[in-house]
Amino acid sequence: MASQSNSSECIEVQKPFLTVDDAAELFSHLYGMPKATSVRPLNGYDAQNFLINLDHVGIDDQDLNQDPKCCTQRYVLKIMSGEESKDEIGFRAIHSIQKYLKHHGYTCAAPLQNIHGDDMKIEEFTKKQPADGLNAGQRVHGRFMIRAYPFLPGVSLTSVGVVPANSTQVFYEAGKSLAQMHKILQKYPHDTTALKEKAKTFEWSLDNLSIILKYVHVVKDQKRRDFIVDIVKTFESRVLTRKDQFRKGIIHNDFSDTNVLVTPILENSATSENSVAHQVNYKLSNAVDFDDSHYNCLVFDIGISMMYMAVSKPAENHPLHASAAFLAGYQHVNPLTPEELEVLHICQAARFAQSLIMGLYTYTYIQPGNDYLLLTQNSWPIIEDLWEMKVDSMHKMWTDVAMECAKFDMHA
Questions:
Q1: Could you report how far apart the first and last alpha carbons of the chain are, in Å?
Q2: Other CB atoms closer than 10 Å to residue 33's CB: what's the count?
Q3: Tell me: the pLDDT tens digits for 46-104?
Q4: CA 76 – CA 65 distance, rounded (Å)
Q5: pLDDT tens column, 268-307
Q6: Own/partner long-range contacts of 127-133 (Cβ < 8 Å, ≥24 apart)
Q7: Using H for helix, E for strand and C for coil, what is the string for the chain?
Q8: Strand 155-156 relative to strand 294-297: parallel, antiparallel, unpaired?
Q9: Bridge partners of 174?
Q10: Has this prediction a pTM greater than 0.70?
Q11: CB count, 10 Å around CB of 83?
Q12: Measured between alpha carbons, how far is 124 from 5 in angstroms, rounded to an integer?
């Protein structure tokens, strides 16, 4: 295992470097659990995430979305990056948010307590890296925050690939879910100072969109670079200058196709007198990963989520139809103000720009080989369509899709 030894003559690194064996040993030691029967790496941007299985049954993609009873001995171990690990106050605030949401009936996981009676622990690790890859053959050292959560059953919209026939309803329900979260958190009774401070410095806060201008050179096409600059300047002049007009609260900031979980519903439909077709639809089950949460404008969160719904490969209609279905769901629970609706598409485009540039820059210069960082790189045509669409046409699409989605609540 990566040892907790002297860090002298080591390369200090920010990206965690634990193996699956390291993760199994760490989880058993820190949480007083039996040794894992199997461990699997999960996708991560800056952090390392592992699915820890204590069952005798192995981890299989097909059983991750089954009855919750099968998941009672499964956990997600999170090893935060060195930079993230410095923000202990911020993570304590996030844990408080999750516990508050769960207490008020919102489906999400709350962090596990470790053997020290806390829900986080800073650990130092030193390890000699393999002969190939980043820092080949060198001894590296890192100081990382360790957290863990019960595993929630379901698969992400990304993992599904293409949401089948009921995709519009899935996006609609996702919008309702985010709105319900916002409404619950409007009554959050605890101090939000740390969450407000995070908005000022966090690189994934839309407040700090202009950071990507330092990295835009990673895009080789000049026309696309100019396109990104136009989005940033428009967001700064038409949105940031009007922040006092928008409702504020605690936002998730990454309510995306990777963090929205669904479970399958097997439905039978007769195709002829003697045959039945089995069609797998999906229903919304859980939301995960609140690590980017902070205090900011609610319309930022809605635009961010609409962007990710558009890139989740919807089976029906245009990708922006998925965004519109999400918005319809949100509006059903927590209607936007006219001022928020006016800038919503700009907020959506802003996160597109953020994701495209930050993902490509990180992949190119910091984490080459981490394909998870490139998930949105094929979405350039979507953001171009969004940015070029006339506002009146966009609002008409939102209205038309909302009328289509009304049937979902009639049959609920």
A1: 51
A2: 17
A3: 899 999 999 766 555 445 545 555 557 899 999 999 999 999 999 999 999 999 999 99
A4: 15
A5: 544 444 444 445 678 888 899 999 999 999 999 999 999 9
A6: 127/2, 127/3, 127/17, 129/17
A7: CCECCCCCCCEECCCCCCCHHHHHHHHHHHHCCCCCCEEEEECCCCCEEEEEECCCCCCCHHHCCCCHHHHCCEEEEEECCCCHHHCHHHHHHHHHHHHHHHHCCCCCCCCCCCCCCCCCEEEEEEEECCCCCCCCCCEEEEEEEEEEEECCCCEEHHHHCCECCCHHHHHHHHHHHHHHHHHHHCCCCCCCHHHHHHHHHCCCCHHHHHHHHHCHHHCCCHHHHHHHHHHHHHHHHHCHHHHHHCCEEEECCCCCCCCEEEEEEEEEEEEECCEEEEEEEEEEEEECCCCCCEEEEHHHHHHHHHHHHHCCCECCCCHHHHHHHHHHHHHHHCCCCHHHHHHHHHHHHHHHHHHHHHHHHHHHHCCCCCHHHHCCHHHHHHHHHHHHCCHHHHHHHHHHHHHHHHHHHHCC
A8: unpaired
A9: none
A10: yes
A11: 11
A12: 8
Residue type, 2: A
Take residue 13 and report the two structure tokens written for it: 């690194």
State both tokens at 1: 């295992």
